[in-house]
């Protein structure tokens, strides 16, 4: 529990106890009622705190919706109660008596606000249609959340995915992830330092994307020293998905029932299906094992072995696919030279 919230609740209960003690002096005016008044104040304070705990997760959008629903329900009940259907007309012998009319109006004032409030709560994002000129800001609307790991920022592909608009969710980058990224960038190891600086550059790229909703929670996850445990706990508490390239963290999240997104699986699913006889352009970077062979690589890391192309090393050539061999690391493509591209 948040220490600040706990302090506020304890202070509220103490104020309720003090109010009961003061009431025993001003209203009850007797020492024998003093203990009873203090207990009543304690009971009221504890009851309010329990109601507060039960309402955990109740958003401002929900409060606005239920307030609007109760208002509409009271208006409907009032209009029906004032309608000629419930008027007392002494000229008609079969008119309802005042007691029956009172009970009907009381039932309307109980049922109509309840039904209207429930309907308004079920409206979710469509609630702004009921009030055409009032629309809640995006932070008050139920938006899908994705918690971002340090490995994703260092990987860098997340910026291109978000820029293309394929990730329709708010990115949650916790403060402890930023601290970890900063510590990696300040490392004495040049490799770690380069990775950390790359992550900071990707973070700046994400900030420059206008349509992207980035949230940085400032609160620290208490009683958890491991960053992976913090990420899983935060995703659980926020009912968010976890975006990571760390296999061990992904399995930990899966064990705790947290849905995780895999950038490597996304990249693999976006690889183009290569057909025999198809032509493409490839840069030849090194020699092959057999005489005359040259090797190039596609953007997804697939190796392309081109026969009779050693003379074109360091150049971009157009090749025709002869065969495709699936391997554990991807695909090995055998091709033959069609023409030099430059």
Structure characterization notes:
The protein has 342 residues and is an alpha/beta fold. The protein folds into 3 domains: 3-129, no CATH class; 145-268, 3-Layer(aba) Sandwich (Rossmann fold); 279-340, Beta Barrel (OB fold (Dihydrolipoamide Acetyltransferase, E2P)). The chain has 11 helices and 10 strands. The strands form 2 sheets. The chain has a 5-stranded parallel sheet with strand order 3-2-1-4-5. A 5-stranded mixed barrel has the order 6-7-8-10-9. The longest helix is centred in the first third of the chain and has 26 residues, at 3-28. The radius of gyration is 33 Å and the shape is elongated. The two termini are 65 Å apart. 19% of the residues are buried. Residues 125-141 have low confidence and may be disordered.
How do you describe this structure in short?
The chain has 342 residues and is of the alpha/beta class. It has helices at residues 3-28, 34-54, 60-81, 98-122, 150-155, 157-163, 175-185, 190-208, 227-238, 247-255, 263-269, and strands at 145-148, 170-172, 214-215, 241-244, 260-262, 279-287, 294-297, 303-307, 316-327, 330-340.
